[in-house]
Amino acid sequence: FSNGEKVTAKSFVDAWNYGAALKNNQKNAYFFQYIEGYDKVHPESGSASAETLSGLKVVDDLTFTAKLTQKFSLWPDTLGYAAFVPLPKAFYDDHDAWLSKPVGNGPYTIESYAKGSSMNLRKWDDYPGDDKAKNGGVDLKVFTDNNTAYTDLTAGNLDLVDD
Length: 163
Known about the structure:
Layout: H1 9-20, H2 38-41, E1 56-60, E2 63-66, H3 75-78, H4 89-93, H5 95-100, E3 108-114, E4 118-123, E5 137-141, H6 146-154
Antiparallel strand pairs: 1-2, 3-4, 4-5
């Protein structure tokens, strides 16, 4: 992670358990519904009877397994969704601090973040992966309506708009 913490199998398993747990009220919790034990951590009604997905097992520092309750041909594609990213210990240790200055694990670090407004990413010079950033950074801006976004785009203030 950009704070120096190693990304491990546990980083993924803990994040997936957090994402699936009913008590955490995550909008994308249903992405985990095919993992064994989801019905216990996120029941359709009532309280959770387990805190972790029984289908997730850490094998070693860099390996974990996920046991599904049924065949799911889109499983490999699903893993590309943000709900499946690993999370650092800082996320759980001081969630409010993490929200104000998130820690990531990609080729950029988060320089600044304003919820619902913007995020400025900068090249992480010490990024250990092969897919190094090819620019100095990316500035993301949130628009509340398409007309304003289009105006900014045609004025040359934006390189890309994603609706």
